[in-house]
Amino acid sequence: MISTLVLDVDGVLTDGNFLYNQSGNKSHKRFGPDDADALKLISPYVSIVFVSADLRGFPISQSRINDFGFELHHVPSTERLHWISSRYDLSTTCYFGDGIHDGIILSSCSIGIAASDSSPLAKYSADYITTSSGGNRAVAEAVLFLLSRYFPDQFSSYLSRQGLQHLTFEDLYPKSSVDLLRSRSLSYITAFNTLDNNLLIKLLHPDCSLSDKTNNVHLHSRDDIMTFSLKLVREMSIRVSVHTIATDLSSRSCIILLSAISPSQSIKVIDILCFNPQHQIVNILASPVSL
Fold first, then answer.
1. How many Å apart are CA 48 and CA 93, to the nearest integer?
2. What residue ranges in the chain does DSSP mark as E strands?
3. Exposed e or buried b per residue across 241-265, where buried means at least 16 C-beta atoms within 10 angstroms of its C-beta
4. What is the C-alpha to C-alpha distance for residues 135 and 116, in angstroms, rounded to an integer?
5. SS3 per residue for 50-69
6. Structural domain 175-288, CATH architecture
7. From residue 206, how far is each of 3, 92, 247, 255 by CA, in Å?
8. What sign results for the dihedral spanned by CA atoms 186, 150, 249, 272?
9. C-beta atoms surrounding 182 within 10 Å
10. Cα–Cα distance for residue pair 199/150, rounded to 1 Å
11. pTM recorded for the entire structure
12. How far apart are CA 176 and CA 231, in angstroms?
């Protein structure tokens, strides 16, 4: 669950460009459509906070945020994580950022969102990357994503009001949904290889199950899976490398062909990761490949 949504302004609500007049003053920023209306859909359920590091252009941003009915805070990019963590619970906070200093914030919050034209570091650290670019309905897409994930009843009500109750979020944004499942699957492989327990906790549902036919192991909780991963990596020195990955949106699953490499052998394995609507891994099936 999330209780707070923190959004950067420049590059998220805007396209990130600054327009100057002949006097050398910032005179304009370009904001896009639908974002204000979308924020009204989620504002009854979460606190919405806007931040900006742009001091010279602050009055421009403030005018637009005031139109939304929210407050804007001037927070330098390099101080933003401390500012957010001292005011909000990171475990229930979503952050939407785009810049070169946003990676640590995106990975520290419960969920991080970046626009499609964000910096590579931001996109690498984000849990969800919008198909839309900053200033072009990216916030609206992010809001619908959050509604579908954390407030499904409200999301269904919204679609029903449009006469589109038969649709899912994946129908509206299939590419982003595919990218999200791929990204979270690859993050799981990284977390396994590096024994990053914080990332594993973020990715795995507490009741996640594992059926590993390679090692004849069947587990039924996140804690047991993490303990088993620790044994494989530390005691058996196993490392995993990905060859190919395919995504099936209809079943919310990813199929990964990988190599499991140890000092004594290297075998091909197929991992099937199944996700719930909140995009947590709920089931893992590992099977050796017969050559």
1. 10
2. 4-8, 19-20, 26-28, 47-52, 72-74, 93-96, 111-114, 128-129, 204-212, 217-219, 239-248, 253-261, 266-275, 281-288
3. eeeebebeeeebbbbbebebeeeee
4. 11
5. EEECCCCCHHHHHHHHHHHC
6. Roll (3.10)
7. 20, 17, 23, 21
8. positive
9. 15
10. 19
11. 0.80
12. 34
pLDDT per residue over 126-154, tens digit each? 989 999 999 999 999 999 999 999 999 99
Instruction: Give the number of C-alpha atoms closer than 13 A to the C-alpha of residue 147, restricted to the C-beta side.
Output: 23
pLDDT digits (tens, 9 = 90+) for 253-265: 999 999 999 998 8
4-166: CATH class: alpha beta
Q: In what order do the strands lie in the sheet with 204-212?
A: 217-219, 204-212, 281-288, 266-275, 253-261, 239-248
DSSP code of residue 34:
S
> Looking at the DSSP assignment, which residues form a beta bridge with residue 242?
258
Q: Could you state, in order of their start, the residue ranges of all structural domains in the chain?
A: 4-166, 175-288
